[in-house]
Amino acid sequence: MAGAREPMSAIIRPGRCRSTRALTCTAGLRPTAKGSAVTPTSAAPTLRERDNSMAREKRDEALLSTLGAEHAEWRPVLALVNAALHEMERAVWADSVPAREHSAATGEPLLSGTTIRIAPGPVHRWVHRAMTIAGTGASATPFADALAGGTLDPMALFEAAVAEDPDRLDDLARAAGDNRGVLRVVGPIVAMPMLHACRKAWTPLVSAAWAEGYCPICGGWPALAEARGLDGQRRLRCGRCGGDWRTEWLRCPFCGERDHEHLGSLVSQGPGQRTPEQQTVDVCERCRHYVKAVTTLAPMRPEDVVLQDLATLVLDVVALERGYRRPAAKERPVEVIATPSRLRALFRLRQRATGRKP
Ligand SMILES: [Zn+2]
Ligand SMILES: [Zn+2]
Questions:
Q1: Mutual angle of helices 182-202 and 154-163, in 10-degree steps
Q2: Cα-atom radius of gyration of the chain, to the nearest Å?
Q3: What domain count does the chain have?
Q4: In 21-168, at which residue ranges do the beta strands (DSSP E only) sit?
Q5: Residue 140 sits in a domain of what CATH number?
Q6: How many angstroms from the chain centroid is the CA of residue 117?
Q7: Could you tell me if 291 and 236 are in contact, meaning their C-beta atoms sit under 8 angstroms apart?
Q8: Ligand having the closest approach to the CA of 238
Q9: Would residue 54 count as lying in a domain?
Q10: How far, in Å, is the centroid of ligand 2 from the Cα of 239?
Q11: Ligand nearest to the CA of 262
Q12: Contact at 8 Å (CB) between 282 and 260?
C-alpha cells in the first residue's frame, strides 16, 4: 500500500531505455521465473481455512476500512465488496455450482457452456441488496424502482453479470432508466459469490497446462499478476472469481506477445531486485494493454484480489496516463445460463425449516 502511493520512477525495458524525467534506467526485463511448479494453489477450502474465516474477515475489514479512510469516494464500492464477501459465506452459491468433470485444457473456461440452476429467492435477495447499497448516496437511483416494478429482472442481471456481458448489462441498465454505467461497476460484484463458489469447486479441475491469458475458471482477464515466492513464479489472478493460474514471464496475457522488445514494465520503485510489496505495471507495446504486478511471498487470498485491485488504483492511473489500458471484457462472453430451480427453491425452504443458513 505504501508503495502504491509512491510516484512511478522508471520504465525498464530490455536493451533500450525510454524513461521520463529524472529516471534511473536499468536494462533488463521482468525477472524470470526460476521454478515451474504448476499446482493450482487456490484449491477448495480446507477445514483450517474455514476455522480461520473469522481471522480472514478481520483482515478483510481492516483492508476495507483502510481503503475507505484513504479514499472516501470509494466507500459505496467498498461497502458493496464487503457485502459480497459476506454473501459468499451463504451455502446457496456452493450448492448451485454446476457439475463439471473435464479439465479446462482446451481454451474454454470451465464456466463456459454451463447452466446454473439456482433458486430465484436468494438471487433476488442478493441483487436487491447489492442495488440498494449501490444506490446509497446517489440522489436518485432508478434500480430500486425497476426491481420493484419488474422492469429489471434480477435473474437476468445475475446471468449477464456472471457471463461478464457488458452489452447485456447496458441493455438492462437502459431498460431500468440508467445510462451512467452503474451496472458495469455493480455487475462484477454481483457475480462474485457465484463465481467464487465455482472457483472453490473447480480449481482442482484446472489443467496444469492452461496457457491462456484469461481465467481458466470464469474467463475473466487477470486483474493482477503475482511474482510469487522465492522462486518468483508468475501467476495471474482473476478479480472476478479469485482464480490463480501460472503464466510465463515473457508473454502478454492479452495478445500473447512474446517478443521482449515489445514487453516492459513501469516500476514503482528504484531499479534492482524486486522486493516484497513492490508493485509494477507490466505493459505490452503490441496491444497497448497492461497488467498490474505485485511481488508476494505467499499466494494472495482469492477474496483479496478484488481489494488489492482497488488498493493499487494508482498503478492504473500511471498506466492510463501513459496510454496503456485494461482490455475490455472478452469479445465473446462466457456462455452461461442461469435458470430458476424450483427443486432448489423447495430445498431452500426445507433448509430454512431446519435452521441451516441458505
Ligand atoms: Zn475468474
Ligand atoms: Zn499484448
A1: 70
A2: 21
A3: 1
A4: 114-118
A5: 3.90.1670.10
A6: 23
A7: yes
A8: 1
A9: no
A10: 19
A11: 2
A12: no
- Which residue type, as a one-letter code, is found at position 145? D
Q: Kindly give, in sequence order, each residue whose CB lies less than 8 Å from that of residue 116, ignoring residues fewer than 6 positions away.
A: 96, 97, 98, 159, 162, 194, 336, 337, 338, 339
Q: Residue 112's closest CA among 337, 336, 332?
A: 336
CB 225 within 8 A of CB 234: yes
Question: Cβ of 184: how many Cβ atoms within 10 Å?
Answer: 14
Q: For residue 180, is it within any domain?
A: yes
In the structure, what pLDDT confidence band is assigned to residue 268 with cuts at 50, 70 and 90? low
129, 154 in Cβ contact below 8 A?
no
Crossing angle of helices 166-175 and 182-202, in 10° steps, is 130
pLDDT in tens, 89-146: 999 999 999 998 766 557 889 999 899 999 999 999 999 999 988 876 554 567 888 8
Find the domain containing 175 and state its range.
9-18+59-335
Ligand 1 centroid to Cα of residue 220, in Å, is 5
Which ligand is the nearest neighbour of the Cα of 200? 1
Q: Are 4 and 314 in contact (CB under 8 A)?
A: yes
- C-alpha dist (Å) from residue 116 to 154, 278, 281, 337: 14, 39, 36, 6
| Of 288 and 57, the one with more pLDDT | 288
242 in a domain, yes or no? Answer: yes
199 CA from centroid of ligand 1 (Å): 7
Q: Residues near 242 by Cβ (< 8 Å), separated by ≥ 6?
A: 42, 195, 196, 199, 301, 302, 303, 305, 306
Q: How many A from CA of 256 to the centre of ligand 2?
A: 6
Ligand with the closest atom to the CA of 287? 2
Q: What is the pTM of this model?
A: 0.78
Q: Measuring CA to CA, how many Å separate 149 from each of 112, 132, 152, 336?
A: 32, 15, 8, 26
Of 174, 71, 151, 161, the closest CA to residue 123 belongs to 161
Residue 352 counted as domain residue? no
User: What are the distances in angstroms from CA 145 to CA 55, 187, 265?
Assistant: 38, 18, 46
Query: Of 123, 95, 97, 110, whose CA–CA distance to 340 is shortest?
Result: 123
Cα 347 to averaged position of ligand 1 atoms, centre (Å): 28
